[in-house]
Amino acid sequence: YAEITSPTVESLIAKGDWNQSLAMSRTLLGALIAFLALAIVLCFFERALSALHISAMAITVFATLATFGAMGAPFGLPALLGLCATAMTSLFTTLFYGAKLKEELYKGRTVKKAHVEASKKSLLPGLDIAIVAILIGVCVYALAGDVASKFGIVLILGGFFSLIADFLYIRIAGWLLCNDSTIADKFDRYLG
């Protein structure tokens, strides 16, 4: 600890003469590796439902990041932590739906009927987690300082987009997945 290290800032966007592209910084590479590791674990345990989990999480995170960037707010560590919390809220919602779908299938229901029941049973917990994320975001934004307020902004946006993904995307994608005749015939192999 005797050596003083100066702080560094990594740019997320590399601006050229005529284009803008992502700067492949250590933070971005670390986030991509973590996302890839999570995707591999989900594919191993959840099989066909992992496509629903990964895509819903990606939609929520990227919509939150795009809206946060459009607002012109500076992206830093609190915003990155807010994106991680947003990803976890979205992942919780889809994992809960998947657990309820499997539970209904193990009760002996058809895949289509299991989807309807799982959608009903997972609606309120998904709504709860999104509302709690929004409320925590509002409290952090109102009560914390300037730096931590970025976490609150990202959490508010993430809760909102998680709510939209829960009400629209998970229901539509789950319906499409469960109305596939291949999965209906061999659900134990495809759905875990």
- Summarize model confidence as the mean pLDDT: 86
Count of alpha/pi helices: 7
Q: Tell me what portion of residues adopts beta-strand conformation.
A: under 5%
Strand order of the largest sheet: 1-2
Gyration radius from CA atoms, angstroms: 19 Å
> Biggest sheet: strands, sense, closure?
2 strands, antiparallel
Structural class by sheet pairing and helices: mainly alpha
Helix content: over 70%
- How many DSSP E strands? 2
Summarize the topology.
Layout: E1 13-15, E2 20-22, H1 26-46, H2 49-70, H3 77-106, H4 111-143, H5 149-178, H6 181-185, H7 187-190
Antiparallel strand pairs: 1-2
Helix pairs in contact: 1-2, 2-3, 2-5, 3-4, 3-5, 4-5
Walk me through this protein's architecture:
The chain has helices spanning 26-46, 49-70, 77-106, 111-143, 149-178, 181-185, 187-190; strands at residues 13-15, 20-22. By secondary structure, it is mainly alpha-helical. A hairpin with a 4-residue loop joins strand 1 (13-15) and strand 2 (20-22). Helix 2 (49-70) packs antiparallel against helix 3 and helix 3 packs parallel to helix 5 (149-178). The radius of gyration is 19 Å and the shape is elongated. It starts with 12 loop residues before the first strand and ends with a helix. 32% of the residues are buried.
Summary tags:
7 helices, two-stranded antiparallel ribbon, 76% helix, 3% strand, single chain, 192 residues, mainly alpha
Brief overview:
The chain is mainly alpha-helical and 192 residues long. The protein is built from 7 helices and 2 strands; from the N terminus they run E-E-H-H-H-H-H-H-H.
